[in-house]
Amino acid sequence: MTSHQPIMTLEELRAFFDREFPQIHEGGRTYHIEAIGPLSATMRMDYHDRHLRPGGTISGPAMMGLADLALYAAILAQIGPVALTVTTNLNFNFMRKPDQRALIAECRLLKLGRRLAVGEVSIFSEGSSDIVCHATGTYSIPDRR
Amino acid sequence: MTSHQPIMTLEELRAFFDREFPQIHEGGRTYHIEAIGPLSATMRMDYHDRHLRPGGTISGPAMMGLADLALYAAILAQIGPVALTVTTNLNFNFMRKPDQRALIAECRLLKLGRRLAVGEVSIFSEGSSDIVCHATGTYSIPDRR
Amino acid sequence: MTSHQPIMTLEELRAFFDREFPQIHEGGRTYHIEAIGPLSATMRMDYHDRHLRPGGTISGPAMMGLADLALYAAILAQIGPVALTVTTNLNFNFMRKPDQRALIAECRLLKLGRRLAVGEVSIFSEGSSDIVCHATGTYSIPDRR
Amino acid sequence: MTSHQPIMTLEELRAFFDREFPQIHEGGRTYHIEAIGPLSATMRMDYHDRHLRPGGTISGPAMMGLADLALYAAILAQIGPVALTVTTNLNFNFMRKPDQRALIAECRLLKLGRRLAVGEVSIFSEGSSDIVCHATGTYSIPDRR
Hints:
By secondary structure, the first copy, chain A, is α+β, with helices and mostly antiparallel strands. Chain A has 2 helices and 6 strands; from the N terminus they run H-E-E-H-E-E-E-E.
């Protein structure tokens, strides 16, 4: 059985993300892949003006974007830079108002199949153990021949 | 039984959105509330550089943000400018690659309760009847005394 | 472009369901495929003791089972009796307490791809137009060579 | 801050379930609340004929019913026998075919608010650490005055 160690290094994955998702850094680099491991990834989103609503609360779409990126990072770390891997389903539960600080997204893959990958993401305010947002997502992996 | 006509006019709703979500217009006004009706709303998102991935495909998070805004518009049109209404759950199915043109989000409320509202959104590429993304969402309506 | 007419007749689909899901009729025949059409199906679940909680309310799992069957019916009517088609994702919003009468599930397919099918189901109490439960689901279609 | 210890004993919870959900034992007692803890519960569903499809595979609806019961058990263990607590949303990812043996559902509450509770459930075939089905659910807690 496979050990599920990533087949990309952190540097390779970050470089791939910079090429594939340059628009996430528009206005400043706020998304960071912090770590990857067996069937897992950790991503950070800085507390930055463009992710906020008036009053300073981090917006829902900013959190949804972070979750999607974290899942994508965890999957690609495992299968390599398969650029046509696409999100087919995402489900979000928003549970607590985030603090006015960075968000940390911890992603764990639940299944890595030949055609579909499924993972979950827990998003926390940096330094807190209370989940702000929890998501599960399914990604379709294209045929590779 | 109520007729479910909106209690806000389109202009009032647009003004409310400009005050509550000014960050969505950063880089240019690309989100437009096109229409509101009984338990429904239509929102448009222009095809704009900041919503795109390399190659010109509209990003998943751009579509998720559009769906969230459209649902919020439909709910607030019905209950008035209750600013503390928050998203508790969103579920997305991404089904087709969007065209390189504007997106139209058609939102229909399925339930408008005292504490929770539930709606669905179908997102189309402008001019097409094939659903690009379908979402359902639940929003928590705060106690109003 | 295909007309999306079902490729199975109602009788063929009912016979297939009787072979594939005999356990749903345990205790009495309460599930009925009422109609099939282009990318659609209607299923009925009788108001029967084994679907109820004390006090006579139809249980959540009974509704979830109905939604899954209705989606499966709509998909198989389109693609034929492909028995290894399996549910990969289901999302339910429970919105109103059902009446103490039969349930009608109206299913509409949103996407019918080569590998994945996505549909939505609206469940009503017979005779009512208020949605009791709304669901979306994704099904994986096996390779057929 | 609360320690989140359950406020019901395992025996009290089992007795409550027997009163509230007698229909789950129709045909034989196959659902068992195995354990409860802080914001958690474990439930077992025996491998029994009425949960199966031809060929002996456990049905999707049987797993969905198990997840719903496990979440309900975890919530009620924390808040007491509040019978009008109802499911508002459930999202399921079916990831592996279950073995032909009992299922174990491990439930963890992610949020326990005044009005809403959110939890996740991981379902395993007994003796295996591969997740068969993962679910998240939201429950509405009625006002208690």
